[in-house]
Amino acid sequence: MNKTIYIIRHGQTDLNFRGVVQGRGMDTDLNDLGRSQAEAFYQYYKNVPFDHIYTSTLKRTHQTVRNFIEKDIPWTQLSGLDEIGWGIYEGVESSDAVKLAFADMLGSWVSGRLAQKFENGESPEDVKLRQLEAFEHILQNELASNILVCMHGRAMRILLCVLLDRPLSEMDEFPHSNTTLYKLEYDGKKFSIIEFNNTDHLT
Protein backbone atom coordinates (compact mmCIF):
# COMPACT_ATOMS: atom_id res chain seq x y z
CA MET A 1 0.00 0.00 0.00
CA ASN A 2 1.34 3.42 -0.96
CA LYS A 3 1.77 5.91 1.87
CA THR A 4 2.66 9.58 2.22
CA ILE A 5 4.48 10.28 5.47
CA TYR A 6 4.96 13.75 6.92
CA ILE A 7 7.78 13.63 9.49
CA ILE A 8 8.23 16.76 11.61
CA ARG A 9 10.42 17.74 14.52
CA HIS A 10 8.67 19.11 17.61
CA GLY A 11 8.43 22.85 18.33
CA GLN A 12 10.92 24.75 20.45
CA THR A 13 11.31 24.14 24.19
CA ASP A 14 13.10 26.33 26.70
CA LEU A 15 15.95 23.79 26.79
CA ASN A 16 16.28 24.08 22.99
CA PHE A 17 16.44 27.85 23.37
CA ARG A 18 19.06 27.67 26.13
CA GLY A 19 21.20 25.04 24.37
CA VAL A 20 20.71 22.51 27.17
CA VAL A 21 21.14 18.84 26.22
CA GLN A 22 17.66 17.39 25.77
CA GLY A 23 17.24 13.77 24.81
CA ARG A 24 14.98 10.91 25.72
CA GLY A 25 15.51 11.60 29.42
CA MET A 26 14.02 15.12 29.38
CA ASP A 27 10.21 15.36 29.08
CA THR A 28 9.83 19.09 28.51
CA ASP A 29 7.02 21.40 27.37
CA LEU A 30 6.95 23.67 24.35
CA ASN A 31 7.71 27.33 25.06
CA ASP A 32 5.76 30.26 23.59
CA LEU A 33 7.72 30.16 20.34
CA GLY A 34 7.26 26.39 20.13
CA ARG A 35 3.51 26.77 20.52
CA SER A 36 3.42 29.40 17.78
CA GLN A 37 5.47 27.12 15.50
CA ALA A 38 3.00 24.30 16.16
CA GLU A 39 0.08 26.61 15.37
CA ALA A 40 1.75 27.76 12.14
CA PHE A 41 2.28 24.14 11.08
CA TYR A 42 -1.35 23.34 11.85
CA GLN A 43 -2.70 26.29 9.88
CA TYR A 44 -0.56 25.35 6.87
CA TYR A 45 -1.37 21.63 6.86
CA LYS A 46 -4.80 21.42 8.54
CA ASN A 47 -6.51 20.45 5.28
CA VAL A 48 -4.26 17.45 4.65
CA PRO A 49 -6.49 14.39 5.25
CA PHE A 50 -4.27 12.64 7.79
CA ASP A 51 -5.44 9.12 8.62
CA HIS A 52 -3.20 8.58 11.63
CA ILE A 53 -0.80 10.49 13.88
CA TYR A 54 2.26 8.90 15.45
CA THR A 55 4.38 10.65 18.08
CA SER A 56 7.09 9.75 20.53
CA THR A 57 6.10 9.26 24.16
CA LEU A 58 7.49 12.70 25.07
CA LYS A 59 5.00 15.52 25.55
CA ARG A 60 6.80 18.06 23.39
CA THR A 61 5.72 15.98 20.37
CA HIS A 62 2.14 15.63 21.63
CA GLN A 63 1.90 19.40 22.14
CA THR A 64 3.26 20.10 18.65
CA VAL A 65 0.45 18.17 16.93
CA ARG A 66 -2.24 18.75 19.56
CA ASN A 67 -4.53 20.58 17.11
CA PHE A 68 -4.53 17.56 14.80
CA ILE A 69 -5.13 15.18 17.73
CA GLU A 70 -8.08 17.30 18.81
CA LYS A 71 -9.67 16.72 15.37
CA ASP A 72 -10.06 13.09 16.53
CA ILE A 73 -7.50 11.75 14.08
CA PRO A 74 -6.33 8.39 15.46
CA TRP A 75 -3.14 8.89 17.51
CA THR A 76 -0.53 6.40 18.67
CA GLN A 77 2.51 7.02 20.87
CA LEU A 78 5.54 4.87 20.02
CA SER A 79 8.61 4.80 22.25
CA GLY A 80 10.59 3.82 19.17
CA LEU A 81 10.17 7.43 18.00
CA ASP A 82 11.67 8.91 21.19
CA GLU A 83 14.77 11.07 20.97
CA ILE A 84 18.18 9.44 21.39
CA GLY A 85 19.23 9.05 25.02
CA TRP A 86 22.19 11.32 25.77
CA GLY A 87 22.92 9.55 29.08
CA ILE A 88 24.98 11.50 31.59
CA TYR A 89 24.60 14.68 29.50
CA GLU A 90 20.79 14.85 29.77
CA GLY A 91 19.80 18.27 31.10
CA VAL A 92 23.38 19.54 31.16
CA GLU A 93 24.02 23.19 30.32
CA SER A 94 26.20 23.93 27.31
CA SER A 95 29.87 24.59 28.03
CA ASP A 96 33.17 24.22 26.20
CA ALA A 97 33.64 20.79 27.79
CA VAL A 98 30.17 19.63 26.72
CA LYS A 99 30.66 20.97 23.19
CA LEU A 100 33.97 19.10 22.96
CA ALA A 101 32.42 15.86 24.18
CA PHE A 102 29.64 16.13 21.60
CA ALA A 103 32.06 17.05 18.81
CA ASP A 104 34.09 13.94 19.63
CA MET A 105 30.99 11.71 19.73
CA LEU A 106 29.54 13.09 16.48
CA GLY A 107 32.97 12.67 14.89
CA SER A 108 32.94 9.02 15.94
CA TRP A 109 29.55 8.51 14.31
CA VAL A 110 30.53 10.25 11.07
CA SER A 111 33.59 7.99 10.87
CA GLY A 112 31.34 4.94 11.18
CA ARG A 113 31.76 4.05 14.87
CA LEU A 114 27.99 3.86 15.33
CA ALA A 115 27.94 1.74 18.49
CA GLN A 116 29.61 4.58 20.45
CA LYS A 117 27.45 6.20 23.12
CA PHE A 118 27.70 8.37 26.19
CA GLU A 119 27.55 6.63 29.57
CA ASN A 120 23.95 5.52 30.26
CA GLY A 121 22.98 6.76 26.80
CA GLU A 122 22.10 5.26 23.42
CA SER A 123 24.05 4.82 20.23
CA PRO A 124 22.67 5.41 16.71
CA GLU A 125 22.56 1.62 16.31
CA ASP A 126 20.43 1.34 19.47
CA VAL A 127 18.02 3.96 18.13
CA LYS A 128 17.85 2.30 14.70
CA LEU A 129 16.68 -0.98 16.25
CA ARG A 130 13.74 0.61 18.04
CA GLN A 131 12.87 2.74 15.02
CA LEU A 132 12.70 -0.31 12.75
CA GLU A 133 10.21 -1.86 15.17
CA ALA A 134 8.17 1.35 15.31
CA PHE A 135 8.04 1.73 11.53
CA GLU A 136 7.10 -1.90 11.03
CA HIS A 137 4.06 -1.09 13.18
CA ILE A 138 3.32 2.08 11.20
CA LEU A 139 3.56 0.40 7.80
CA GLN A 140 1.29 -2.45 8.88
CA ASN A 141 -1.58 0.02 9.41
CA GLU A 142 -3.56 -0.62 6.24
CA LEU A 143 -6.13 2.04 7.12
CA ALA A 144 -3.58 4.87 6.96
CA SER A 145 -2.19 6.25 3.70
CA ASN A 146 -1.55 9.86 4.87
CA ILE A 147 0.49 9.73 8.05
CA LEU A 148 1.80 12.49 10.35
CA VAL A 149 4.83 11.62 12.50
CA CYS A 150 6.16 14.04 15.14
CA MET A 151 9.51 13.24 16.70
CA HIS A 152 12.94 14.68 17.55
CA GLY A 153 15.96 16.12 15.78
CA ARG A 154 18.71 13.52 16.21
CA ALA A 155 16.22 10.66 16.08
CA MET A 156 14.74 12.09 12.87
CA ARG A 157 18.18 12.21 11.24
CA ILE A 158 18.73 8.56 12.13
CA LEU A 159 15.26 7.59 10.92
CA LEU A 160 15.74 9.27 7.54
CA CYS A 161 18.90 7.22 7.02
CA VAL A 162 17.01 4.08 8.05
CA LEU A 163 14.06 4.71 5.72
CA LEU A 164 16.17 5.84 2.76
CA ASP A 165 18.62 2.95 3.21
CA ARG A 166 21.59 5.25 3.75
CA PRO A 167 24.43 4.61 6.21
CA LEU A 168 23.83 6.13 9.65
CA SER A 169 27.18 7.91 9.31
CA GLU A 170 25.42 10.26 6.82
CA MET A 171 22.76 11.38 9.31
CA ASP A 172 24.06 14.94 9.54
CA GLU A 173 23.22 15.45 5.87
CA PHE A 174 19.61 15.92 7.02
CA PRO A 175 19.42 19.39 8.60
CA HIS A 176 16.56 20.35 10.86
CA SER A 177 15.08 23.12 12.96
CA ASN A 178 11.98 23.13 15.16
CA THR A 179 8.92 21.92 13.17
CA THR A 180 11.01 21.15 10.07
CA LEU A 181 9.10 18.85 7.70
CA TYR A 182 10.45 15.93 5.70
CA LYS A 183 7.76 14.53 3.41
CA LEU A 184 8.31 11.00 2.12
CA GLU A 185 6.50 8.72 -0.30
CA TYR A 186 6.42 4.96 0.24
CA ASP A 187 5.55 2.80 -2.77
CA GLY A 188 5.23 -0.43 -0.85
CA LYS A 189 8.93 -1.24 -1.21
CA LYS A 190 11.03 1.88 -0.77
CA PHE A 191 10.89 5.45 0.50
CA SER A 192 11.74 8.61 -1.43
CA ILE A 193 11.94 12.23 -0.22
CA ILE A 194 9.36 14.61 -1.71
CA GLU A 195 10.10 17.60 0.52
CA PHE A 196 13.48 18.21 2.23
CA ASN A 197 13.82 20.30 5.41
CA ASN A 198 10.69 22.29 4.57
CA THR A 199 9.80 25.22 6.85
CA ASP A 200 7.46 27.09 4.49
CA HIS A 201 4.82 27.21 7.24
CA LEU A 202 7.11 29.46 9.32
CA THR A 203 7.56 32.17 6.67
Keywords:
six-stranded mixed sheet, fructose-2,6-bisphosphate 2-phosphatase activity, 35% helix, 203 residues, alpha/beta, PG/BPGM_mutase_AS, Rossmann fold, His_Pase_superF_clade-1
Overview of this structure, please?
The chain is of the alpha/beta class and 203 residues long. The chain has a single domain, classed as Rossmann fold, CATH 3.40.50. 35% of the residues lie in helices and 17% in strands. It has helices at residues 14-18, 32-45, 59-64, 66-69, 96-110, 124-139, 153-163, and strands spanning 3-9, 52-55, 75-77, 146-151, 181-186, 191-198. Strands 3-2-4-1-5-6 form a six-stranded mixed sheet. The longest helix is centred in the middle third of the chain and has 16 residues, at 124-139. The N and C termini lie far apart (34 Å).
Strand fraction equals 15-25%
Taking Cα atoms only, what radius of gyration do you get, to the nearest Å?
A: 16 Å
Distance between the termini: 34 Å
- Reading off the top of the CATH hierarchy, the class is best stated as Alpha Beta
- What letter string, H or E per element, gives the SSE order? EHHEHHEHHEHEE
- Principal-axes geometry comes out as globular
> CATH superfamily, please?
Phosphoglycerate mutase-like
What's the number of structural domains? Answer: 1
* CATH-level-2 architecture: 3-Layer(aba) Sandwich
Strand order of the largest sheet: 3-2-4-1-5-6
The number of helical elements comes to 7
Helical/strand content category: alpha/beta
The number of strands is: 6
Instruction: Please bin the fraction of helical residues.
Output: 25-40%
* CATH topology annotation: Rossmann fold
- Could you describe the largest sheet, including whether it forms a barrel? 6 strands, mixed
Keywords: Hydrolase
Binding site for substrate: 9-16, 60
GO cellular component, one term: cytosol
Pfam family, one: His_Phos_1
